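Input/output pair, single chain:
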Amino acid sequence: MKRLKRYQYERYAILCRDAYPAHFDHLQYGFSELGRRDIKNRWGKTIIRILWRDDGDAVVVFKGSQSVWDWLLNLVFIPSRVDAPEHAGHVHWGFQFLLRQPSRSASRISNRDTSTLTSAQQADITHSIEENQLDGVSVIEKLESCIAPLIAQGKRLSFTGHSSGGSMAIIAAEILEQKYPNAIKRIVTFGQPATGYWNFKQRYRLKSKTYRICCDVDMVTFLPGLPFLFWHVGELLWLHNDRIYHNMPSLVRIIRVLTSWLLRPIAYHFMDKYIRRKDYFDKH
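Output:
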C-alpha cells in the first residue's frame, strides 16, 4: 500500500469540510469551470459532489449526516447485501440506503439573466437549482451515470467522505470497482463508522487503496459499537499526540487516549511541548 501524502490528506480533508455548506465554489480548488456535478438525495440536498479538471483526474466527495433523518439511519444496522454484480458481502443497511434512495434532479440555468454573475456563481447556480420531483433514479445510479463518461475519457477517481459519507464511499467504491475495474485510484475517509460485516471485509476489493483517518478518540469511528459484528476495511491512520499510527487496534487506541488524558497535566511540563509552541511567537 502506498503512503498517503500530506498534500493529498489536506486536499481531501478540505473538500470534505467545505462540501457541507450549501454554496460551494469548485473553481477555487482548481477544478474546471464545467468540471462539477452535484447529486441530490430524496430531500433535495446535495449528498455527493463530483469534481474534475479537464487535464486531470476526478474527486468524488460524499457528505455525512445532514439531518435528523440521516442520523436515524445510522441506527438501522441490520445486514444488507451489497448491490454489486458479484457477491461482496453484507453492510450496514442505513448506509447502503443512502445510496439506494431516489435522487432529485438538478436543472440547468434557464430563463435567467446571469450576465452580472461571475463564472463561479453561474456554475454554482447551474448545479444548485432543484426540481420538485424525483426522477426515479437512485443516488448510486446517478453517480454511475456521471462518472462513466469520465472513466471513458481515461480519468481515474478518488473517493473521499466524512462520517457516514465515508461509509457511502466505501460501499459505492466496491460496487463501481466491480463494474469499472481499476478506475478508482484511492479512497480516503474521515471519522468513518464501521461499514460492513465480516464477509464484506473479506471480499472488499480495494483494501490496498483505502485510507481511514481517525483523530484521537473520535467515538463515531467505534460505531455501531458491536464488537466482532461490524468491521473496518483498509488502512487505519490514527492521528494522536502529533504522530500518525498505522492500524492501531481499537482497544489500544482507547487505552492510549485515556492514559494521555490522565498524564496530560504532567506532559505539559515537558520541553517538547514548549518547543512546539514556537509558532505562537510569530503572531505577537
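The chain has one domain: 6-252. The domain at 6-252 is CATH 3.40.50.1820 (Rossmann fold).
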